[in-house]
Write a structure and sequence with these properties.
Length: 218
Amino acid sequence: MGFRDGFLFCDGWHPFCSARRGMGPRWRLVLVDDHAPTRAAVAEAVAAAGGALVGVGTSGGEAVALVECHRPDAVVLAVGLSDGDGLHAARELMARVPCPIVLLTGRTDPAVIQRARAAGVMAFLVKPLRPAELGPAIELAVARYREFEVVARENEDLKKAIESRKLVERAKGLLMERQGLTEAEAFRRIRKTAMDSRRPMAEVARALLLIEGLASQR
């Protein structure tokens, strides 16, 4: 870790920087802003708060590459960038390499806030930067992103559970129709097959339905 061109950088290999606990930096951040004075102000505020910049860019095109390379704890992203709209870059980040995003903006009108939230921005910093606000904004973004991850996992688990239930229900109906089983008997048949083969019931149900589909095509 060291200063280059006025910024505090962490290359990811220095023992101080690689230790994420104990003596490590408070956060590892990527900064994307095309305004040199603002970059310098953010870098100074990050260092004063105990963090480290692991990458700095000036365009939205660099944002995804920097995050993919460094896997930071959060990204500080300006709304206006040299190649266009920072909110477009935020959408790209959330689609390709999701992470906590703090938007650095001089505009706080409702339209910008609404677009930022839709793009996945978790917190805001208003220009001119007040250093005391950086730490709370980063912490808020990280906390909100963790909540987002929990909800996303729960939704994915729920989606999978619903899909699995539908498969089992269809397979039960098939066994009841083809073999004259009761609903309880069909369920026990699927469950026993799953236990014997050490496979999820949904996989057994899917296999039964696939076999039936192939048979019906003959």
